Each structure stands twice: as structure tokens, then as C-alpha cells.
Amino acid sequence: MQIRWSSFHSQYNEAEVKTSVPRSAGVYLLWLKLKNDKWQCFYVGQADDLERRLVEHLVDSEENKCIKTHAKSDVCGFKYAEIAMQSNRDGIEKYLYDHYMPDCNQKDPGGKPMVVNLA
């Protein structure tokens, strides 16, 4: 399945999210810039409201300590894709999880992966 990824946002903060992310359903990737200047995906997720969910990761009450640590970094970015159907989001999230093996995902989302173009 071909999905349309957003442009890469190299600043992950509330202002950037609120001005560039829709309030629609989709999948998203959170990235951390490494010391060698390469980017590494540290979290894969999905949401019914991308803007709301991406902002939630930035608040002090974020329960995932790994996300909380990385999201507060000056070298954190994100990408997203709008995906309306829940079954497609589930399959895409699983595929992205299997591909990137992100450090901050606390558990495998399970299900059958749906192959998509990578971000």
C-alpha cells in the first residue's frame, strides 16, 4: 500500500505540531538525531486524532519515560500519515514496528503487518 507521508518535521514541539498536524486519524513516527547526524526512529504509534496524540507525548504527565526523555530533546522530529481506516492503521503500525524496532515502544502492537512505503 502506498501512503502519503508528511514532510519531516525536525522540531518536535507543541507549536510545530499545532501548526502542521491535522486532527485526523493516522500513524506517526518519532525520530531522534544521533551524534553521527543520522536519525533513528524511537517510537511508532497511531491515533484517532494525530494532533492531540502528538501533543500528549510532550506533556509532563507522559507515562512512557523513554518517549518523555527523547521528546524533550532538541534533536527530536516526527512524520505522520493520515490513515482513516482502523484496520489499515493497525496493519501499518505493525509493519513500521517490525521494520524500525523502536526503543520506546513498550510492546509489539500485534496483528498482521500491512506493507507500506517507508517514511
Topology:
Blueprint: H1 14-20, E1 26-33, E2 39-47, H2 50-56, H3 65-71, E3 76-82, H4 86-100
Provide a concise account of the structure shown:
With 119 residues, this protein is an alpha+beta fold. 30% of the residues lie in helices and 20% in strands.
Task: Quickly give the structural class.
Answer: alpha+beta
Order of helices and strands: HEEHHEH
Determine the number of helices (DSSP H or I, runs of at least 4 residues).
4
* The level-1 CATH class: Alpha Beta
Describe the fold and architecture:
This protein is of the alpha+beta class. It has a single domain (14-100), classed as GIY-YIG endonuclease (3-Layer(aba) Sandwich). 30% of the residues lie in helices and 20% in strands. The protein contains four helices and three strands, in the order αββααβα. It has helices spanning 14-20, 50-56, 65-71, 86-100, and strands at 26-33, 39-47, 76-82. The protein has a three-stranded antiparallel beta sheet with strand order 2-1-3, sandwiched between helices. β1 and β2 form a beta hairpin. The protein starts with 13 loop residues before the first helix and ends in a 19-residue tail after the last helix.
